[in-house]
Request: fold
Amino acid sequence: MKSQVKSLALALLALFLAFSLIRFPDQALEASIRGLNMWWEIVFPSLLPFFITAELLIGFGVVRFIGILFEPIMRPIFKVPGVGSFVWAMGMASGYPSGAKLTARLRQEKQLTRIEAERLVSFTNASNPLFIFGAVSVGFFHDPTLGVLLAACHYVGNTLVGICMRFYGRENPAEEEGNETREKITLKKAFQALHQSRLEEPRPFGKFFGDAVLSSIQTLLMIGGFIIMFSVFNKLLFLVGITPIIAGAIGILFQMLTLPQELTIPFISGLFEITLGSQMTAQAENAVLLQQVICVSFILAFNGFSVQAQVASILADTDIRFRPYFLARILHGLFAAMLSVLLFIPLYVDRQAFESNESPVWIRLSQHESFWSELFEKLVSIGPLLTIGSLAMASLILYRRMIKK
Reply:
């Protein structure tokens, strides 16, 4: 019976998309182009170097080297192996869904148990600083000083999620015994593990690098499809009147939290796609800045159903379950929202007072934020060229391999 209900629901969803696309072709095309622009200007060029580099680091044993050295830190705090430190750092630097891709890769290599992988993926998918400082704080709010507050709420909240998730899976201790180690950690042992990993890689460098490029581009093409479809789906929900209905229900909750009704539509949009939701929140009228920050912090932490669908697709190739990740996103959203209230005065209000007094410390921080905003603008300008060049390179690699066969 449950399977039949699921089949009916999926069929109705497909019919809804088909009829809505026929009914609103112009608006659907506009939303599709918007999603495509975001993918080839920002997402593809910003994630591709990280994906390729991560594949090389894993294949050459550098990740195992890092894992052995960071085992005494990651195991007690997050109850995951030391390789989790690499996934955590790469996830913060490159943004979602890098954490899911790297976690799945390490799970396939048996460097993580299933429970450990589910813990790790729950707190290693984060928005990158480029998006928080460049797109949200500067692009949407036109306020560079807001970047530190949003970043602190986002990354500290993610860390708190990781600490909470260390208690996940305690009822299955046998599943996490595989990677436990009581041996003394030395630099020599870490290097030996690196050397052994490199020897176990049979492919020559040329083929290995080509496989890394193709695998990364394949993943990014999938991500692009999700971004475009959810951009269209979000627009169609609004056009057919479903979004206002949901907004009415959420408005009751917002009244209890003393948040204005004007934030309900941006909040719902952000639940589907974080970029549009953040932009609409910044443009919402009759909302004070703190209320907007609370809403944006939750949206960034929740990741949006678009990113969650990307993560689910990546995890589908492994035995890692999606539910712990989804529950962790809700927990992260709550943590980020609460932190935005607690940190708003010390990291934003007090900071503006310091900047007005030309404090050297805050001037340096402002210069740091200016770097991210300038980098974001440069990426938008050259991103399409990088995307086209990368796709051309992938096509050339595939063509040469077809000729050899």
Remarks:
- The chain has a mean pLDDT of 84.
- Residues 52 and 215 are 8 Å apart (CA to CA).
- The chain is about 80% helix and 0% strand.
